[in-house]
Design brief:
The chain is mostly beta strands. Helix content is 5%, strand content 43%. The strands form eight sheets. Strands 21, 22, 23, 25, 26, 27, 29, 30 and 32 form a nine-stranded mixed beta sheet that branches. Strands 20, 24, 28, 31, 33, 34 and 35 form a seven-stranded mixed beta sheet that branches.
């Protein structure tokens, strides 16, 4: 397999993948369908039923479905996905109003929690940039009795029900609630509601054969939600009259913010089997930890007098705790949770060190003791071997301090002895915002990099400009911040490259959903692909693609999601020898 970049233009980046082999997964497979993360598009919680003589329960099949021709009345065009490998993700638009303000619980849905507290809503109507999720029944009329007011009655048409059996996951464990309801614009009709527990009344009571209906799906906390749903119905007397059912678990995820505010824990993780040292950024209050490439550290507090005494000119500070203890959070973004719980106990005692490698930002960075009485690292006088912290077996509270507001990349590495042999981690970059949140604007990004490189104010104002002449526009560099891109230094080599993975041709990349909210706003990053240029297919929330053909999905190694997402442009096609990928950026 050979990967190489073949072309740049001011608006697109094109990459090529040559494949020596590629497997093909047929459309329509339900069992063992490839993992799929769904951020947007039209899908259904789908129940099929065919008569199975002697075993009525065997006639059921529960799945996630979509239609190849987008006509959900056409039974011949259905593709079914396994719910166990399919995850619906609350996209940015599910957590905001039409005007972009945070979506909150109103008095109409106050059963879900206090008025004004956060709400994530998969809407009943098809809104761009959200999962449009319905419930569907596909079966011949006359198989089932009709269910009405708690009673079954023989019927020439019939109906089935979908009942919520249980809800587990880190979202519910943190107090998260879920409800499903219909709205006619004035009245809300709740079918599923976990605020008062789960019982037999938590059901969509009537789905007629070959029908589908859409609902509002509401969640109140970040984390995972595993909803076990039962399809059930009573067969008509001529078919035996039995009550028959089946169950499947459907997966949902509300992303964590990717923001670490006020304070954070830097967990030091060591895996002895591969001699691998790593860092995790843990927000213990939110029960989540992030890979450094997917967490943003927000230093918004004004520097204390003690910090300024040690670091003249300091303007911002943030409390950081360095910890060799195992991660306490249930949700892990970007790293295998089995690694997160390892801690650093297998290292030789007293040998673990955190070293500073470089600092890029509009000012200087220092790491002080928690009371600011001692300096552990300081970029103001250059970076030397003295810029390191030795950790014992206990947590070490520290204070990160900055001398100017803006964006900072602080590169560090971990060094230790394991059985007397030195182990060195890969360099890891911590992204800080001094006086900035993860939702920083293009203007703030521009200003920060102009001051970092001593450029005149306004130099990077033009999003279509290419200051460093590396083929990436300033707007593209803004959107590719998490790949390490800098608009003043040629860095096209940092771009993701395609590769063959599990029988598919893929390109993995980091999507910052604060910059691109998937609603065709000011900034948009759309992956594209082709087997034969110049014809390209570009994928985004308006053109989502198909899971068993070409689409954007997830590539997370953790068990949760954040607003900084590791995404994958994945193509499943037969008999290919090559595949081209590109990004299209708006504005370009």
């Amino acid at each position: 397999m050979k990967c190489k970049r073949i072309a740049y233009t001011s608006s697109v980046v094109v990459l090529r993948l040559t494949l020596f082999w590629l497997l093909w997964l047929p459309c329509g497979l339900l069992s063992q369908t490839v993992p799929m993360d769904i951020l947007y598009g039209h899908f259904e919680v789908h129940a099929d039923y065919q008569l199975s003589p002697g075993n009525p329960d065997a006639g059921w099949r529960l799945s996630v479905s979509y239609n190849l021709n987008d006509n959900f009345n056409d039974r011949s065009q259905i593709v079914r996905l396994d719910p166990e490998t399919t995850t619906f993700i609350a996209s940015p638009r599910t957590g905001t109003t039409a005007g972009g303000a945070p979506l909150t619980i109103t008095s109409a849905v106050s059963r879900l929690g206090p008025v004004g507290s956060p709400l994530w809503l998969f809407p009943q109507n098809n809104i761009l940039g959200t999962p449009f999720l319905g419930a569907r029944a596909v079966m011949d009329p006359g198989l089932f009795q009709v269910f009405f007011n708690g009673n079954y009655t023989p019927s020439a048409s019939g109906s089935i029900s979908l009942r919520l059996v249980s809800m587990t996951g880190s979202g519910p464990a943190a107090g998260g609630r879920f409800a499903l309801w219909e709205s006619d614009g004035q009245t809300l009709l709740f079918y599923l509601d976990t605020s008062n527990g789960i019982d037999a009344t938590d059901r969509i009571p009537t789905l007629a054969p070959n029908s589908h209906s859409h609902f509002n799906w509401g969640f109140t906390k970040p984390g995972t939600y595993l909803l076990t749903i039962e399809a059930l119905g009573r067969l008509n007397p001529q078919h035996g009259g039995q009550l028959t059912s089946t169950q499947k678990t459907f997966r949902f995820s509300v992303p964590h913010s990717s923001r670490l505010t006020g304070s954070a824990v830097l967990r030091l993780v060591y895996r002895a089997a591969s001699r691998d040292l790593h860092l995790l950024l843990e927000d213990t209050g939110a029960n989540v930890a992030y890979h450094p490439a997917q967490g943003f550290l927000e230093a918004e507090s004004s520097a204390s007098a003690a910090a300024i005494a040690q670091m003249p000119g300091a303007v911002r500070q943030m409390a950081l705790t360095l910890s060799p203890a195992p991660c306490l959070s249930t949700d892990i973004v970007g790293l295998d949770p089995a690694r997160a719980v390892l801690g650093a106990s297998d290292l030789d005692p007293g040998t673990l060190k955190l070293r500073l490698r470089s600092v890029a930002g509009p000012g200087h960075f220092a790491l002080l003791s928690a009371d600011a009485s001692a300096v552990r690292m300081n970029s103001a006088n250059g970076i030397s071997p003295a810029d390191e912290v030795t950790l014992g077996s206990a947590d070490q509270p520290t204070l990160a301090v900055f001398t100017a507001d803006g964006l900072y990349r602080v590169e560090v590495e971990l060094v230790a002895l394991a059985g007397g042999v030195e182990v060195v981690s890969r360099p890891m970059t911590l992204a800080f915002g001094a006086g900035l949140t993860a939702a920083y604007s293009y203007a703030s990004w521009r200003d920060s990099f102009e001051r970092t490189h001593g450029l005149a104010s306004g130099t990077l104002t033009n999003t279509r400009g290419d200051h460093d002449q590396d083929g990436l526009t300033n707007g593209a560099e803004f959107q590719l911040f998490w790949h390490g891109c800098d608009p003043v230094r040629p860095d096209a080599g940092l771009l993701p490259l395609p590769q063959p993975v599990a029988g598919a041709s893929v390109m993995d990349y980091l999507r910052d959903t604060y910059k691109d909210t998937l609603t065709e706003g000011t900034f948009q990053m759309s992956p594209g692909t082709t087997a034969q240029p110049p014809t390209w297919a570009t994928y985004n929330s308006r053109n989502p693609g198909r899971p068993l053909e070409a689409c954007e999905t997830g590539a997370e190694t953790g068990n949760a999601h954040g607003r900084i997402m590791l995404r994958r442009m994945r193509v499943l096609v037969p008999d290919e020898s090559r595949r081209f990928f590109r990004f299209v950026f708006k504005p370009d």
